Amino acid sequence: MSTTTPSRGARAASGTADYLDQRTGIGTAVKGFARKIFPDHWSFLLGEIALYSFVVLLISGVFLTMFFVPSMGETHYEGPWAAMDGVEMSQAFASTLRLSFEVRGGLLMRQIHHWAALLFMASIVTHMMRVFFTGAFRKPREVNWLVGFVLLILGLAAGFSGYSLPDDVLSGNGLRITDGVVKAIPIIGSYMSFFLFGGEFPGTDIIPRLFTVHILLVPGLILALIGLHLLFVVLHKHTQYPGPGRTDKNVVGYPLFPVYTAKAGGFFFVVFGVIALMAATMTINPVWNYGPYDPSPVSAGAQPDWYMLFLEGALRLMPGQTEYVIGGYTLSLNVLIPAMVVPGILFTAIAAYPFIEAAVTKDKREHHVLDRPRNAPFRTAFGVSFLTAFVVLVLAGSNDLIATQFRMSINDITWAFRVLLFVGPAFAFWVTKRICLSLQRKDRELVLHGHETGRIVRFAHGEYIEVHKPLDEYEQWLLVSYDSPRPLEIEPAEDSRGVRRKGYRKDLLKQRVSRIFFEDRVEPVTPAELAAAHSHGEHDTLAPAPDHDQITSEVGSSPASETDTETRNR
């Protein structure tokens, strides 16, 4: 038997690993983590895109930090951009121009940073949409949902503080709006504005303060919460879509090492490459066209990045004649409602929904298998109505561009969006809920009668029928194995002696909320219904139905699959 002598590098690596393992016990943790199973589905990559975009933000941000000057000190520009030659500007704007035209690779890194920020927010939003519509936020993941929600808020803060740093006209207009929103807060608004800007707007301190927030405070919090988010993913197991062999007690997929590690590593370079390609071919935030910030002009067609457009749209839709003076203090509802009340309602709904649904359903079980959106009609309809409101506000934030591009009246567009903001979500809720219920009824028909084949058969006594193809056991299981909660049933208002029951009002409120969620529902097919549907006398000779024992097994549990890549019990 021949033996292979380890190379010097292999011996050094093994010696280092042994040294660390004996002093930290890291070998046990690495071994357990490397055997962790992750399901294989494209939608799970949305969270990875957010993570990799953040890594790109850190890499490009370090480069930009080396050359950016976070100062509002005045200077006169002298550089290759002739249009700005001799123009008075802040050192922050001058350093941004220097980064764009004089530092080798500076413009590419600026655009990589900006595109990565947009992709970071887009992937967070779509990742949360996937989690919401599939019910991945249910027990035990409510806390992790809140962690993701805080990451969304921190992403907004990072984006706002980042695109405000160049001190150009566009970012200055955003800061002017921020100053107006802060001053609209009753009683303390003017003091908060003075504290934030270090004096009267724009002051001289806001850029250095935003720089500290952008490169130190917010990234540090995001890094900590990403670590906590991933820790919860490991502790709770990964969710998985319903399918053969998948239950709340196992995970079907690939181990972290070596399969998933190789896939994830390759995907990082795909994300990095796409961002770099976008940055190299598509211009974004050309501050040299805007010029340095001057409080007097306001450029037409000025919009913030897409994830802040909903706030801009809310401000544009709010009528202006809504100011009141109470006790010597001005109450500016035209700013408070769109800038604080509307975002407060939207964000509170996002954060609180998992707890509201858990209270209504009284479901205390752990859930690791995801829902099909059609099987949760209220949740799906609510999510679509929420997104509809968001899209309306985003479009309203571009009402001036819509008016100029389509040669329409901006007043008519604004009124149309005002109506849509109330009518659109309600209509989207109704349509989505009806679609979900219709899809559930279609699933019932498929389970009970099978797929239509178009094959017409005539019997000896003259009857014509169409032969249906029965579902296979896996498709059948997928369509019947879901919970359909019933509305809450409560005890009568009075007991047998006619005495009004204590706590009846509270129970009645819970029942009404429960009816909102579950009054419109479609029951999954039961084993008895399935057996009855497959018993047709002489018709059975055309397409034999599965026996009753098999039906009961299929409806009550998940079938195993020999084609699953790998299944690990937890």
Automatic annotation (TrEMBL):
Enzyme class (EC, first level): translocase
Compositional bias per record (Polar residues), positions renumbered to this chain: 552-562
Obligatory cofactor(s): heme
Subcellular location, record wording: Membrane
Annotated region (Disordered), positions in chain: 528-570
Segments of skewed composition (Basic and acidic residues): 535-551
InterPro entries: Cyt_b/b6_C (IPR005798), Cyt_b/b6_N (IPR005797), Cytb/b6-like_sf (IPR027387), Di-haem_cyt_TM (IPR016174)
Main localization category: membrane
Bilayer-spanning residue ranges: 49-69, 114-133, 145-165, 211-235, 256-280, 335-356, 376-395, 415-432
Nucleus is among the record's keywords: no
EC number: 7.1.1.8
Segments forming domain Cytochrome b/b6 N-terminal region profile: 16-242
Protein name as annotated: Cytochrome bc1 complex cytochrome b subunit
